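>> received
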Amino acid sequence: MNVTDVRPVAAPPARGPNPFALDDAAAYARWRAWKLAHRPARVEALMVDVADPRALHPAERAALLQRIACCSVAVYRSPVTAADKDLPRALGAQLGLRQLDANWLADEDGISSIAISAATDGRGGFIPYTDRAIRWHTDGYYHPAERRIRGMILHCVRAARQGGVNGLFDHELAYLRLRDLSPAHVGALMQPDAMTIPARDEEDGVARPAQSGPVFAIDADGSLHMRYTARTRSIEWKDDATTRAAAAALAALLADGADALHLRLQPGMGIVGHNLLHERSAFEDDPALPRLLYRARFVDRVALPAGAPWRNG
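>> returned
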């Protein structure tokens, strides 16, 4: 879809009542109808061609924001294939993403270079730095509430020789599908101790303490936040029947994949938006031109224009 083809987004229900609050069935019903009306059937609906992600034209920026408002994410395509680590930072700033999460495996500038690594700095064997598949997750699911990851950019410099397909699943749609199945599922996953990531022990002691929190949470501005991993190891669900049933229902929903979109990023392409559910297939690398992506994770969310649908990250 060319940026000139973008049509205005019909506004959802006015802000005030919160569709993510389980006691507001009317707001949920209105928002649900709006959300489903704007659900993309194909990944191409998320794509925007941009001349240079570092310096967006107003129409390009508007097209990206339109897709993020509807679908929590946009995919950009550009002719910029140089290995420029300033690109995700510059792109993010134009969309309101400025507070980079300096996680322990990021480079010194806060941008992570995602490539196969055998280093002993922690990256070697850590799954993003391997050629193995990564199951459904949101970024920073092991972070405390004050470091919630709300925005993300994944920019492709070099693609793998084969494989490395990214899956995208709008977390708001995941909430919608689960609430349609049973509001009790959502209620269980909103408990503050629904999902716990155990402490990670290193040779010199605990590198990260245990972190408990909800799967779904409503941020201060009324937006929906999600923290989740489909991993079955290194994760503990609250030990009650309601939470176990909700976790199983969510896992089945993701395994079904009816609302998932998939694409294989090519050089110059990238994903930008809220911290939605995503996955990656296994891949085969080219030793001469190994796969390289830049990942930027942000504590703030995409700044949607006034009057646009309010969304989360």
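>> Residues 241-256 form the longest helix (16 residues).
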